[in-house]
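Researcher: Next sequence.
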Amino acid sequence: MTDLAPAAIAELDELADGLRSRADVDARVHTTRKGIKRLRAFLRLARPSVGKNTYRTENTTLRDAARLIAPARDALVLIETAAAVGAPDAVLARLEAGHREAMAGLESGIRAEAADLLRSAAVRWRYVAWGGPGAASVRVGLRETYLRGLADLATVRSDPTDVAFHGWRRRVKYIRYQLETIGAPPAFTRPFTLLGDDLGLEHDYTVLIEVCRTHAIDTGFEFVAEAAEQRRHGLRASALELGRSLFAPEPEAYLRTVESLVDLS
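Model: Next structure:
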């Protein structure tokens, strides 16, 4: 396994530069949020190497940068998700107005602030003794993230709330990005990618339903909420079915499988 830290630092630099670009801001925001998720997954592999304090500082920095740009991305996703269920023009117009407002807020200095956070992290990461992170650190990170995903699935199955699905979604995406980071074969990673995509869509419909409830008396929103509920129901059922299969192994068995596929030394 090659040293993972240089690639992570290079991605931080690239995200900070990209977020400052004036070209296709919506796409830049989307790319930055995905990149931050990958980097937070990497941090979970590096945590045993760098220690709790460094991990918490850097994870908080990445989290804060993501939160700054989240409203702009969420506003665009609302439009796309509503359009997918056949939302009437009146609903789309309201959502588009919300997107314009979010983009105006992004350009008020928020985008630059998020880019500065990423740049500051890149500077610090160059001076952190990552130690690779070493194989032992990666093994611990892989096991702990999978274990948390297993626990989140148990929570979802016993109490399938919006919050429970949201927590499980984040964990599944961390697993996917960790596997990609260490170079796991695509055939092994792909099911986690598919599950993460389903849970991502489930989350998009959940957010849309919540927004529709705030506009319950406005024309068209009730129809959109009902259509979104139907789509979400199907996604939750398929996600649970796939999740039961993916998380059937115990953490140690999962780790042994990964080690059989990737040289972690």
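Model: The chain has a mean pLDDT of 93. The chain has nine helices and no strands.
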